[in-house]
Amino acid sequence: MNMNTVSKITAILMLVTSLALTSCSKEEEMGCWPPLDVPGDSANVIMIFNATTNGQPLELLKNFKDPLGRTMQVELLKFYVSNVFVSFNGASTLLKKAALVILVDPNVTDTTKKHNEIALKIPYGNYDRITFSVGLDVVQNAGDPTKYPSAHPLSINQNTYWDAWGKYKFFMIEGKGDWDGDGTLTNIYGYHTGFDECYRSISFEKMLTLDATNSNETLNVNFEVNDVFFGKDTLDMKLHPSWHGDINTIETAFIISDNFQEGLRLN
Questions:
Q1: What is the pTM of this model?
Q2: pLDDT tens digits for 35-60?
Q3: Which of 56, 118, 159, 256 has its CA 20 to 30 A from that of 265?
Q4: What total number of domains does the chain contain?
Q5: What is the distance in angstroms between the CA of the first residue and the CA of the last residue of the chain?
């Protein structure tokens, strides 16, 4: 592993550790999500995550073209969002400890729930920034998934835990592609990022004024699937068709994590 990678890992771990200091203790964690106590009157705010493929809404097993003109499909796309804060002049309020966002998953048959929405209760007031992370902080990532009830986002039922590593998967995308252009999608890809080094924080400037006359708000967080692979850095999916925790090739997970972080947009 080169020195740039080591420096990146060290910096990320320092940031993650500092954020984890605000986390619930192991004893408190079960009561911390959901809900968090919200003092006084509060507004109902929905954060919605939307994915597109070349500008069109993402659909399970729907063909689309990547920037190289190759045909692809997405069969699974889900990720953790954690430590959601709103702030004003640097003073922050924690809104949500952890949520599992599911955009595409053939195993999810309950269509009555909006798995791409996170419900937030925000105390009335003025805010100028919203911050959240993709992945789980060091405290959450070290948790035992068997200790959570089945509906909890960190429970073993979510199929997001790496037994081999004793950690959670942060960002999961799987599908098929046609890398040689013969018209058949025979190339299988799958990337499951994880480990504390793949934790990424995102912060958006957002003016919110919430009171009794304006107590409902929708926040749309959008991204393009192609940007996960062809973003800040380009991932050679033919050379590296998967990543599932091999520390020797963790740069692949860094590319996915960095591209996703850079590709998110708040509208």
A1: 0.86
A2: 455 556 899 999 999 999 999 999 99
A3: 159
A4: 1
A5: 38
